Amino acid sequence: MTRQDLPSLLLLPFPPDPSNRHLLNAAYRPPITAALSKLKNPNAPSKLTIAVACPILQGPYLRSKALSWPQAQYLIAGIYTIISIVSAELSINTEMDGGPNSVDTTVLLVDHSRSKRFTSDFRPAIEPNNTIIVDLPTFASAYYPWNHIFHVRSEAGLAFYQAYLRFSEGRQTLLQDQLVPVEGGLTMNSTPQEEDLPSQTQTYRTICLGGTFDYLHPGHKLLLTAGALLLNLPRKDDTAAPRARYIIGITGDALLKNKKYAEYVQSWSVRARNVIIFLSRLLQLSERGWKDGLNPQINEQDGDFRAEFRDGTVGIQCVRIEDPFGPTIAVEDIDALVVSGETRDGGMAVNEKRVEKGWKALEVFEVDVLDAEEVKEEEGEKVKQGFETKISSSSIREKRALVGRALGTKI
């Protein structure tokens, strides 16, 4: 694996607190723009992991943590919105396997706080908790090597960068040109009072969601990440605890024949494989980093792809769906369903069917939408249209069809 094949890392300091989409844009758009501009390559695709320092987990013990799901998914939605806007402005493709001029970006929250102190004899190690979010020492121990490491020129950005370098020492020999400082945006943080802390969200052992996942793009990544945040992962030494299950229903090829530009719809196997590859970026933890390869091992059966992560404590299952309900009315042992605004009604229909069968209704969680208008109202229709091409599978297919026709081939 050459250095150019490796993903790059952008370290983002603490988000604004309190926060909204405009404040996130002010804080994070400059460094995201700088990193994407650097990685845009007319000859090859690039990958970028954005790690956000975020004291988002609460709990008295390392292995027993809780989080506010609305707060976490809102932050991730805000960052994917910025990525989509900037990519539209820079003519960067955002989908996985997007070819030249594409940057396949993954947003990760890293549990870290300003007040955390480590003694001089501290040695970083992989210490997962019961959520998918890991702390900075675990992140530094499991996520490497990198092509470039971007860090923000600010007091908070420099502190986060220096802490990361300390915890990652010995993992990768870095050349000076791999360490890239970028300008930060404007941000303010207040110290939250205990009574202001958000309420914590119950997590679950079995989560389900569904979609087409054609040309995996930022909207898909938000949905998949939001679902993974709800997983309650057992401790690896707790052999009596059932493992966490994440079931993703993926629309079968037969149901997509009438889609616009249907000849450019990716096959079910490609879409399922890309879903698991993306989720591996959130779930895989190995002290060898990516020395054994970037892609996970997948057990591929017809219409049923599976993979395991974190020593078997969490299993991913992608199943082919041929109707509007998929596994939600075929598997009784599901706890929660994740939906988007577009599939809200489908969540209600699922619960009606489950109740008819005498099964428990699912807890339903709705993910925020990616919305350029919340961030860039002043730039009007042009920005909106460019943004929508980055979060729409049909727009991606249309673009590929137009390019293919111009070249006289299918791309």
Can you describe this structure?
It is a single chain. This protein has 411 residues and is of the alpha/beta class. It has one domain (3-366): 3-Layer(aba) Sandwich (Rossmann fold), CATH 3.40.50.620. Helices cover 31% and strands 20% of the residues. The strands form 3 sheets. A 7-stranded mixed β-sheet has the order 11-12-13-10-9-14-15, sandwiched between helices. It has a 6-stranded parallel β-sheet with strand order 6-5-2-1-7-8, sandwiched between helices. α2 (69-90) runs antiparallel to α5 and α2 packs across α8. The longest helix is centred in the first third of the chain and has 22 residues, at 69-90. The protein is globular. The model has no long low-confidence stretch (mean pLDDT 90). GO terms for molecular function: dephospho-CoA kinase activity.
